[in-house]
Amino acid sequence: MLRVNGVVEQDDNTRNLIFKIPELIHWASQGVTLKPGDYISTGTPPGVGFPKGKFLRGGDVVEAEVEGIGVLRNTVVEE
Q: CA separation (Å) from 51 to 20, 40, 46, 76?
């Protein structure tokens, strides 16, 4: 789940991915040797801001929550 300033913007599950996790690992490992800690980006579920005309601004608080793992909370800093 992804929240911006406490409002849920994205909420989905890996079971809804077009390409399943084992397929992504197989594909990624064809070109490189995967090691512990490597990150494989899976894309994004519906709800991204660009199509909705929403963009992050300085001071926004973004929370990314993964069930069973926890919440990553960051405040946007405008440069």
A: 25, 24, 10, 20
Angstrom distance (rounded) from CA 39 to CA 29: 12
**What is the domain extent for residue 16?**
2-75
Does the pTM surpass 0.85? The reply is no
Q: What is the mean pLDDT of each run of 10 residues along the chain (79 residues)?
A: 94 84 92 92 79 91 93 95
Give the number of domains in the chain: 1
Residue reference for tokens 């849920």: 8
Q: Alpha helices, DSSP H only, in 2-79?
A: 21-28, 49-52
Record the tokens describing residue 4, joined without a space.
Answer: 């911006």
